[in-house]
């Protein structure tokens, strides 16, 4: 028997997640359709929610296992029951929903999940009858198939049209399934027929009699092969599964009885492993089968039984599996008040190394072609990527059972995300008004290895007021506050990573302010000069030696004295050297000439504490955000009173303000219920925001950093673990667009952005960040945009950038009224050709070949067999197939 190879998955074990790793507390309605009723991407799961009409869905992050309650935000999708819904295979945040209200809608779920109920779709389209089922195209971006009554339609989501309508069915179409290559799809109908549909020729390529029972059948294509399975009922109301070969469609290759029960059987298939799972509605069991594509045979394995009956289910994408625990599939089982993850694991003696025999390359998360290319006849296959982590042993020690995707899988998926030149997403405008292209939406963050970290910065001061950024960085230095009497500020040499050690007799050298620190910053044009604001109302100026601190410094270089209460904000001028702006609890905002240590301008009008200040790009206008819920704009050299006043956020807990160009402002803050928000204002009309995005409820002030070159607004909070971003477009409603997010290691105390010329533009880095953790480590993080043609300088991503590290004029020049814009430089490396001059890649579209299920003739079969034999004889040294077959050692199953 050693010459026969046993299946790797025969002894696969099903294991349900513990309650703390399940999604409980859900309210599931009565479900009256043949759909799965739960769907998943690599980031989210969605299921029907009970709100009376049945038109709502619960959308939950896969890593959010907290018990839910009635107050959880919902996707209020339709006025009628949501009959089917699916996440896009190429966008984990894009979902399509269909309903009894005869509409199909498209939704973008925020990366962080639903923080408030969502009821405005990206796009909505109307159909003549209620929607039975919908399926995204498996290879082309923004192509969707829907079944409604007896018609299957193929939608061009990009151009807003139903391109094909196949109405050759005799009754309602209850199920549709694409072939993996996306050329054809199968349908199951209440008229007891199964059909193979060729949408681009609007024909039925093959048809056969299906199940004889009257209840709704389901159909599923088994990957990219020639076989499909269908589930249904016999005339005697017995459930059954049928395997068919589309080349001989009338014949049932294998028929599997599934017992007598009234529940519809839902099939789920993983083409990588050949695992077929059968879930019966109302049952407590899930059947496990293996499909042998070479021998066209289904073999039954060990099933799974739960304590509660199931209402639906779905498979999560392969990118979300815990590969270092040999999890080969995960099914989400919808129960009465919960979604129960059921993982399928292959027992192995060791889990230290990646089991590559269990994980063949899987489909990437990027489309093979655009909608237009597919409609024009192209047939391209989605490329495949490896699930192997970058370091198997490292991944196994850091990934727990039940966790989401491994580091390697995430990297693989990200590396093959859609290219920015071709990337498309639906925009929030009129139905089918087109699609919005974005170059930066898929930015990604990577924490550098620990060898580049700076550790031992303890104890980090956690009492720095929220008006301070909590960190200040330059090209090679960072300022980090330490806890201690007298106000201690460490100057860290970033280019000298490693652990900062302290002993009983020595400590990390620091700048000692003399009183508690309220805010601090480098001089942006000279990082040897440090400004520290204290609670004594003074701003002390320190000088840092060229080689960094070797001992504690208590002697100041000078002081700015003029406020009679504590100074809470320091803001250097963006273009003029030696100009510093301060805000104090005495309600005065002062502009200083640092060289002469004198106050030059005192701005009036604030009635309460100032939360944030920002200069515009040329340093002519100053905007402030105040606790009195007002936004003020000053032209300091012309008037000490504000030239414009508007209404800011309703909350009074703190916030930030930044300029977008010279025409708009972005403000972060809170509402009255402590929900964090980000608002966009037009400078000429501050009466109300153009758009406001409500985020989560948190006590942490939302810090914001605007990248004007990429129009990206990064936002993050102290005590958070992530950095998110919005793309700002002043020409497209709603002007603020969600993008991806970066999730760091543990919680963060502060985030500091280094100057733009620190970025490695060859690797399409758009920001270099220093992340201060609550454990006293300074972690370098790189933000980049994935691109395919990285051998070219991405000049569409890197326009000439502002030089923020060199001044354009002196303090005396600025105070005398002179205005000079910041210098700009081109970051293009020498000898690197810009992308705009690169040759255009011409995609050759293959001529479309209509599907032909004709069986080969005997002469054709003989010719193929003879050719194969001659080819084999030409290679005498090649081993025979049976010589390569192997059994499985007995101890493999221990």
Question: Could you describe the 3D structure shown?
Answer:
The chain is mainly beta. The chain has three domains: 23-415, YVTN repeat-like/Quinoprotein amine dehydrogenase (Methylamine Dehydrogenase, Chain H); 445-836, Methylamine Dehydrogenase, Chain H (7 Propeller); 859-893, no CATH class. It is 5% helix and 39% strand. The protein contains six helices and 68 strands. Strands 1, 2, 28, 29 and 30 form a five-stranded antiparallel β-sheet that branches. Strands 23, 24, 25, 26 and 27 form a five-stranded antiparallel β-sheet that branches. A four-stranded antiparallel β-sheet has the order 3-4-5-6, with no helix packed on it. It is elongated and about 95 Å long. Residues 391-427, 429-435 and 874-894 have low confidence and may be disordered.
Key phrases:
894 residues, mainly beta, Methylamine Dehydrogenase, Chain H, 3 domains, 5-stranded antiparallel sheet, 68 strands, 39% strand, disordered C terminus
How many strand units?
A: 68
C-alpha geometry: elongated
Give the number of helices: 6
- Structural class computed from helices and strand pairing: mainly beta
Sheet with the most strands, sense and barrel status: 5 strands, antiparallel
Which range does the strand content fall in? 35-45%
Q: Which regions contain 5 or more consecutive residues with pLDDT less than 50? A: 391-427, 429-435, 874-894
Distance, first to last CA:
20 Å
CATH class of the largest domain: Mainly Beta
Oligomer state of the chains in this structure = single chain
Provide the CATH topology of the largest domain. Methylamine Dehydrogenase, Chain H
CATH superfamily of the largest domain: YVTN repeat-like/Quinoprotein amine dehydrogenase
Q: Please compute the radius of gyration using only Cα atoms.
A: 31 Å
Number of domains: 3
